[in-house]
Amino acid sequence: MFQLNRRSFLQAAASSSILLGSRTGWSAQAAETPSYIHGVSPTEAAKIKDHAVKFMLKYNVPGLSLAMAYRGKLKLVMCVGYADHETGVTPEHRFRVASVSKPLTSILVMKLMEMNYWHLDQKVFGSGILGYKDEIATLGATNQRRLQAITLRHLLEHSCGGWGNQSRDPMFSGEALDLDHDGLIRWVLKNRPLDHDPGQNYSYSNFGYCLLGRCIEKRFKMTYENAFKAYVLQPHGMKNLGFEIGGNSVADKRVNEVTYYGQDEDAYHKIMNVTRMDAHGGWIATPTDLVRLVTHVDGFPNPSDLLNSSTLRTMTTPSPVNPNYAKGWSVNKQNNWWHMGSFNGGASVLARINDQHVWAATVNTRSKDPNFGSDLDGLPWKIKGSIRAWGGHDLFG
After folding, report:
1. Closest by Cα among 52, 56, 60, 58 to 36
2. d(Cα 288, Cα 158) in Å, to the nearest integer?
């Protein structure tokens, strides 16, 4: 079996707490890798670890954590590798989940819709939730019209008409890095006119989900983070889960948060304002936290869902402009829902599968290899395939 070498990791990371060179790093030659694999037989655990370590060796990954549930019960918890220079990953270690934050935001928006606090076709700007009438009044007529037409639905489906992440993503603009949310919105309205009428084109927008966070704050007079806890976690017995908005620097690490390692990129880059990313990319959590939450919105019989069946259909129905994306979730014809997350120093995947599996996986680096994302997405499928049959246990307790 492949094994990771702690000494090689330490040598690779010694020159910097945030950089992990792509040509050094892991070796398959030495001492046993720290690992925690619980919920399966020793034979299955060996197969699972082999899949994990091969992935980690291929992409120079220091630490990996995964949780997998079936029929609402937590069946597998796996941790392999290092949370930092000295510490093996444990189930309690929390990771940045990046854009896996988007389905969390969608769950909150849909819950508030279900509670009749708003509807998805409610307008955002002008006479809508956020306003900014004076700022919009100074803009060109076409942009004014487009801005005033944006709805919550458009933001959820990435069809607001612009602000995409393929180029000049507003969330990562150096010109606006030090602005708070309000200042950022004002800057974007002034400097980034929309490209299309809302509802006509799909353009994956981090800023669009940032706006959803601000709509929540404006409507409920509390932070986005506190609203998520108040309306999603606490009423459904999940108040003790480890969801928290992350910080921007090594010094800002939260309790039990891993260290992130860049591969030819700074994992704590100066344009990475993670705290400001809250609703689109700012959460930290354990994979078990993510899986427990999604088992309450998966549409399966147990446990009971925190959204009704009609709301779940709305949340996961593909948008008119993208058959593979709904509202905060990638979807397909097999009725699988998932989301990937990736930015400097980390990556994640969260998935709900039509056969009643739910899983999440997180790592504390990001490879620039074009196959990295698809292989991370595929790793839980390989692990699932290593299981002959789940026992009756439930690691949720």
Report:
1. 52
2. 28
